[in-house]
Amino acid sequence: MTNEETSRYVRLKVELVLEVHDAPALREAALERIADDAEGAQPGMLGEDRVHADAAVREDAAEAVAHLVDPLDLLGDVPGVELVQAGWSSEQIDYDPDSLEWDLDEEDELDDDGAGVTP
User: Fold this and answer.
1) pLDDT digits over 67-94, tens only?
2) DSSP for 81-113?
3) Helix (H, G, I), strand (E, B), or coil: what is residue 8?
4) Domain extents in the chain
5) Do the beta carbons of residue 74 and residue 101 sit within 8 Å?
6) Distance CA 37, CA 56 (A)
């Protein structure tokens, strides 16, 4: 690809840390979303996929979040862009807001290969 071709593409990285205050409400909302998807609101979650998703949501709050948060919603009606590819995941983590690991103000520098660079 030429520089002109690659300059049309933008990778947007977003990292969120959520604190779950009401796991039962979170799970219930995710189960409702899965049921709605199975009933045709968003076709594609039928049969075995639905059973697997139900079980995962009941066991793991991170799975519930993954079923409720859609990164496609971030774009909304942004003019002049078209989504080319998207992916997301969620996981339960140990979080220490005082740790440097979670300092969102500090930009990570990357070299040309995408590997971290130490200043």
Assistant:
1) 898 878 888 888 999 888 888 888 998 8
2) ----------------TTSGGG-TTSPPPB-TT
3) coil
4) 21-102
5) no
6) 16
